[in-house]
## 1
Amino acid sequence: MMTKTKQRKKQWAKFLERNKKSGGYLLKSIAAEKTYKLVRAVLLFGLCFLILQPLLNKLSLSFMEERDLYDPTVVSIPRHFTLANYVLVNKLIGFWKALFNTLWVALLISFTQVAFATLVGYGFARFNFPLKKFWFACVLLVIVVPPQTIMSSLYLHFRYFDVLGIIKLITGQTINLQNSIIPYVLLCMGCMGLKNGLYIFLIRQYFRNIPKELEEAAYVDGCGTFSTFFRIMLPDAKPILLSCFLFSFVWQWTDSFYSRLFLGDIKLLPKMLTSISGLLSDYINSIGAGVKATVGYSQMMISTGMIMAIIPLIIIYIVAQKGFVESLSRTGIKM
Amino acid sequence: MGKKKKRSDLKTQKAVSGYLFILPFIIGFLAFMVNPLIESLRMSLSNVKIVAGSGGFIMEFIGIDNFKRAFFVDPEFNRMLVDEIRKMVVDVPAILIFSFIIAILLNQNFKGRGFVRAIFFLPVILSSGVLVGLEYNNSLLSGMQEVIKKSSAVDLTEVLKQILLSSGFGERTLKVVFDIINHVYDIAIASGIQIIVFLSGLQTISSSMYEAAKIEGCTVWESFWKITLPMVSPLILVNLIYTIIDFFIKSDSKVMDKISTTMISKMDYGFASAMAWVYFGAVILMIAVFGGIVSRLVFYDD
């Protein structure tokens, strides 16, 4: 015990000596560093809390009973813990059906988007052809154009779908493709889906950074253009494809714009979420309670529904966090 | 003969396969972008009528009446558009600066860095699509905020604001600063992708450059302005453009909402197209102005 304090004293004396020698610089720099670290920690903690707070808030709301809302002593931990909200929301929006629908739509769409964006991105990254700059400028244009601009005409286009008037000639009527998934898949195949230009851009960046020797070696060994693409380049680009797929999946999962436009009849989670308060009042009418749903209560239902819709995304994010971030930062985005 | 021709035309062959690869894009672009763009431009200049029964619609050319209506007749559109642009002018620089600072912090070494990074990127997923719109409408939360504001006796920011304002120095600027601080949450959740992009740029700067600067007697502050900022400046341009686009097409934009409702609920296609074109013009204008300013300041290493 004695030796320890002695040692410490010795160290302190040594430190003071060093500090003296440096003219007070050592102490100052250490103090500055410690303060900086403290400020950084506080700042980051605060911001993290700020980002997570609404989520935590919704989580606690979703476990409350309605009377907890009006109880001023209840802030974030519910006093009457209940799962009834989840049961009710499940009943209102048909959660499992909506989840299943959203899942297959998001999978189909994101797979189509990434598959075709990969082809196009590879074409832009690895081949020289006339008008290449022009077409790439078109890709950038696609990123920039707000979908609203072309929405009206696309809407009517698919409402009265026809190929050069042939179908009308045969059946005397145009086809209504409004409530099927076909137009949207077609759109994605043409690389015009949700944020599709961005995926092309990212994939192109990634392919550009793969060394040319790899490709040339494959050509010398007798690989054709397409087998080089499939057997050499594609396996190499797995990380970026994965992260594009994840982004596409997640954004499709929460998208309401395209699904409202094209997938009118398919019950998807985002659409059900927006209609939750209407469904709630319908439900309350139907059981004949004779009271209206309060604003607070329907907000509680929306919070619960949001938590239910978000949970799958959070699981994906936790499992594949690296896929989202690391590969994106390796593409070397530049303009 | 055929073989010889094939060899001599390797370049052509490559060009052909290149075109084959981007063919889906070309078809999609022509069919689902150029065609609708032209059509919607035509719609914006005409009165669109749905013909019941026969399946189809007709357009009556009415000149720029729809645009006139958007600007001079409609009570909301002008105001919404101006509001949106004003908000953008404040928000976009704020998002860029915020994400840049956060990226610098997240690039340093400290305990729990991975966890903090994960939280900062979380909004990329959670603030997309319909979730933003729902958040926006969440009256319960805003009600709670009011309660909290009233219940706490002293509002720290309010007091600070009073003091700073009474010091009589740049009232307008201060107001903007307080505005930004008041919705720092919106800024934080809008800057997920931007942080990733800046982070990727920061990671490509070699540490030897900082070491050399330090030996030459550069302070941290100086090396930030002389090394860090120029090296990531191309990414500032990328982020700027991304942020502007993201700002305009996010789903809680009031103008977007108005366009959608006009189209889907009211079936007023001509008017909706005209508004959409005005909106598109505003986006392009903003990108051109801001991009033009920033691209002059960009430094390219190679």
Note: Chain B touches chain A through 91 residues (CB under 8 Å).
## 2
Amino acid sequence: MSDAALTPPVEALPVAPVTAQVSIGQIFLEFLIIGATSFGGVVPYLRGSLVTKNHWVDDKEFVEMLSISQSLPGLNATNMAVLVGEKLRGAMGSIAAIIGICLPGAVLMYIVGIFYRIHGDHVWITAALKGVAAAAVGLILSTVVSMSKKSLSGKFDFVFIALTVIAVNRLHLGVPRTLVAVGLLAILFHRPGKQQKESGSQ
Amino acid sequence: MNQIPALIRVFAYLSILTVGGGMAAFPEMKILTVEVHKWLTFPQLIHLYSVGQMAPGPNMMMIVAIGQWAGGLLGALIVLIAFFGPTAVLAFIVARGWKKLEKWPWRTSIQQGLAPVSIGLLLAGCFTMAKGAITGVETAAIAVGVLLILLQYKINPALLVLAGAILGVFSFMPK
């Protein structure tokens, strides 16, 4: 923990872990900035701030944390905040990071919600929102495509995607039962010892 | 009528369903917030979610608006804590234990197995939303247009959602 203070720096290490000096306030501020500026998806902004600008995590760690974030329930943005905050300053770091990243968007959507409730039925707002909703559908589909390219480990995985969609949208099994049933099936399919042909990246 | 306990129950429950992203919980969110508790209508839910895509930060901040409608400022805060609290605690615990699991062979299996399921849940959420959002040729064209542009070019998605708003005003304004 405190060995950074005990060992005198013989020479400037190229990858000096600055993590010991990061304060809770710095963590909060940095995640607040990410939370306020990350239009159109948080991950690139997280990388820019945490890896490139502040060197709080290195690139390999970042990818590792992102893959943990994606396997867990919770949004990537908030899971990343918790993981990075924990690494830097433990529980308080996690709390500072998640509040920081959520605060700007939450305040904005609070105001938008009130405004929408009062003015949501104006003709031009209804018209604009129709376009916005359609665009959002396209955006989600593009996320589906890019996630499929990145995180699938074989052609057979498309069967699990199809099963999941059928279970939720056709059979109306509900998300929890689908998650357990298809999830277990898929995990068993990818069971240890069966991954000689591992082509997916992290 | 006090909605706070219901808000806590619903959003804490939705929280644990968000495997792979917020959209995974969307079908269940529709059932609970629209059909069961009637905090808002389906078109309103779609509108809030879509507008939320233009906001910075985690992309499910539209839940704040639902909380505000159902329970005022307290409702908004409660919803935030209920929705982000449980998964944050889980992520925190995993952050501590994950390194120890590095040698555990099932770790990779879980990651590889959950990847297609989370993509499936995202797609299922997308279809649920499309049922309300894609109402004709024009909306379908906007969705496909955005999809193709995003697959082809590196452009900020929030800008395309904004472009959708402008297209919407021109296409759907009653003359």
Note: The helical segments of chain A are 3-6, 24-37, 43-53, 59-71, 76-119, 123-151, 157-170, 175-189.
## 3
Amino acid sequence: MKNLTIPEEEYMFPGHTACLGCGATIAMRYTLKALGKDTIITIPASCWAVIPGVYPSRTLDVPLLYTAFEVTGAAISGIREALNAIGKDNINVVGFAGDGGTADIGIQSLSGAVERNENVFYIMYDNEAYMNTGIQRSSSTPKGAWTTTTQVGKIRDWKKEKKKNLVEIMVAHNIPYAATASIAFPEDYINKLNKAKNIKGPKFFHVYATCPTGWRISPAKTIEIARMAVESNVFPLYEVDHGVYNITYRPKKTVSVKDYLMAQGRFRHLTDEEIKEIEKDVMNDWNLLQQKESFTKSLKKVE
Amino acid sequence: MNDDFPTPITTQPSTFNKTGTWRTFRPVIFYDKCIRCMICWKFCPEPAIIIVNAEKYTAPRDAIKKLDAPEINYDYCKGCGICANECPTKAIDMVFEESLEERE
Amino acid sequence: MKLMLTGNYAAAYGAKLSNVKVVAAYPITPQTTIVEKIAEMIANGEFSGRYIRVESEHSAMAACIAAENTGVRTFTATSSHGLALMHEMLHWASGARLPIVMSVVNRALGPPWSIWSDQQDTISQRDTGWMQIYTENNQEVLDSIIMAYKIAENENVLLPMMVIEDAFILSHTMEPVDVPDQKDVDDFLPDYNPKYYLDTKNPMGFGSLIMPEGPFQEFKYKGYKAMKNAIDIINNVDKEFGKKFGRSYGGVVEKYRMENANFALVIMGSIASTAKDVVDKLRDDGLNVGLLRIRSLRPFPADIIKEALSNLKGIGVFDRSYTFGNGGALYNEVRNAMYGKNIFIKGYIGGLGGRDITPSIIEKIYMDIIENYEKGVDGGYEWVGLIGDKRWE
């Protein structure tokens, strides 16, 4: 008898070259557990492009197409249409890209793919910077963070812009399903993937994937930090199903935003005032999300 | 390398690469404290924790006896410490790898 | 069946007859009527493939690469800035050894903005590992696309191919074109049956990282060998096409009245048609001139070109593009092939931005070669037809 809350079968081999405690590998592990063998996956330039190791090593037990950095949306469109043209529309097509390859250089091809209503999964694993090339900032880097291109220094040049909200951008494209997920809540993520499997059209997932190397934390804390992000309302877990918002986890015990930030080296330069500013943003965003939930749930659509 | 491939096509499972050599710290499961919740297995990034038959290890109490147990696969475990950090009964210790070698 | 078709419509028919399964393309003048025709054919149930209306040319090539890697035949088309935008993905397609076929309508690159014909766009992509066939008329456009799949998908080639036509002169001008029967094309061109593709029954990874000590250079060497193999295969497929459909184009080069010629012009694209008329006129005037039309710029058939030009006294090479180097691109490559032969060779650059190359200019070029060939082997190069340059008026 096995006490398991997620599917047992693995579609990933150990022996890969990810850093100790890599959140992105945990995200991939759960993704494949939900989607299974009948899956073709594309990976652009990103941490995951090097994690499977050097030729001839492979880490995934599903077919994998490595692609250029900005093309995930186009690549999954190509695979999907090719499979449909030969009658294999039951195979899952997944684009698995980082925040850099999605929110920045890849946003055009993502927008194109979802606008064309392609029946694909797009998983953005978010380690909140261009980690593979050395921790440079992306539009998904949260406000307050040190990165190698937003250094503290004398003028305190850490990132001042708020994190780009990809789920909202996807909702604006009218896609049937978009959701956030976290590696600390695998059951929630896998439930959402299972729900998405029954939806035709583009399904977008924004998965929080801790990077101990880039965030300056001990690798042992990968899951703990991810949990704190959700419990402090910094990274709420919700889904938008055909335009209706649904918060899928309401934090039980609140972790303070300050505790979350101060547990990571990349935020250690922040003053109490600056932390308060960030706390305000988190509270306002969380309130707005709750309003969106009750508002969209109350809307009566014309039949 | 397959001489027939016109372009690099990867076929060899990465299991040939024993990342256990990366370790500085090694997780050790104390089965008298382990309640076999499988949270360690759930969160391992490699994954380097396998599920073994319930009888392989002595369970701390009857209620747990029938549950299959987690076991660290030291060939691949990089020693990240997530399992030890997440274990609800603190049944996993992170032990300095080199001190174990000295003992051996 | 004979139809009045523009070069673009001929390309669309070529793709349809080749049973392409996925088209991913973005509109750009003067390629637009290719994709519009394909869309019309799809809407009428005459085209069995799927059309991905991508949001840029870069995505068009990326989608073709992914679709081709899934094991299906793909097609795309572009021009000028669209081709330039795809540049990164052109390298990827050839490195991945995918037999994608693309129609390219030769159009100038800006600034200055121009939608008219010159070869700068495809010349700029010579190093990407794509095969390049330059066509002279609309019939050749249609035929070359069918042949392109047969050449590219040959397991000793497995490289992508561009089938190139001039903007407006071919793309938008109607000519009578013989559209072969689907059944005959199916006999000539079998289904695409790749050995390696994304297959859930046999999971593999395509396109991974290789270290310096790993076989990176060896994979590139394989691509180089494949490009060399393509020369014979292009020639053989052309002969086979000729047997089946009654039309052939000479393979990698077309020789026009080269027998006992003393002087010849080397040229690519539709200007060759004008040049052939000039050759006929000069031959009537008693001059022994000929024309060598390069169809295949990549692979570059150096030995065949050298053999074709070895008995001449003077060679002119016309470039409808410029490289900011020591003379035009084709001039450099032909001159390189002729190295060691003591034959006068001179380059001519003109026709840029759609500037018309008249029979008069071509005739003056031949006379220029004839007047200067005795002065030495190195004729240098010059720009032809600049406004105000009385020499070429």
Note: The beta strands of chain A are 39-43, 57-58, 64-66, 92-98, 121-126, 177-182, 203-208, 238-241, 244-247.
